[in-house]
Amino acid sequence: MYYKFNGFTQRLVGAAASAAYNPQGLKPPVVSTESPAPISGTTTKLASDLPATDSFLGKNKVPELQKLFQKADGLPVHLKRGVPDKLLYRTTMALTIGGTIYCLVALYMASQPRNQ
């Protein structure tokens, strides 16, 4: 026996298999048998036909960054790149502490009764 949800009574009711698999009368989309028209008349190139230099035009920085981050200088990873990392770290800490203080003040004010 198959069941489906009845929107009117808000309960499960018995149903045929086709109604249970297509709830609320939804039908599967009709798939067209025609091929779509081409968007443009240009031909496409396969990835194997493209030269290797066209896919990436930048310098590979991974080996340099690996050396920087794996250096044993006692700094945590999130501060290894110098001043920009320190600035981001300190800004994040200041906003976190400020937000915590703001939330505590708002909670304190909300817990106090109003004077009439």
UniProtKB/TrEMBL annotation:
What spans are recorded as compositionally biased (Polar residues)? 32-46
Is Transmembrane one of the keywords? yes
Q: Which Pfam families match?
A: COX7a (PF02238)
Q: Keywords of this protein's UniProt record, alphabetized? A: Membrane, Mitochondrion, Mitochondrion inner membrane, Transit peptide, Transmembrane, Transmembrane helix
Membrane topology, as annotated, equals: Single-pass membrane protein
Q: Where is this region: Disordered?
A: 27-46
* Hydrolase as UniProt keyword: no
According to its UniProt record, where is this protein located?
Mitochondrion inner membrane
Q: Which SUPFAM superfamilies match?
A: Mitochondrial cytochrome c oxidase subunit VIIa
Can you tell me which family this protein belongs to? Belongs to the cytochrome c oxidase VIIa family.
**PANTHER family documented for this protein:** CYTOCHROME C OXIDASE POLYPEPTIDE 7A (PTHR10510), CYTOCHROME C OXIDASE SUBUNIT 7A-RELATED PROTEIN, MITOCHONDRIAL (PTHR10510:SF2)
Q: What is this protein called?
A: Cytochrome c oxidase subunit 7A2-like, mitochondrial
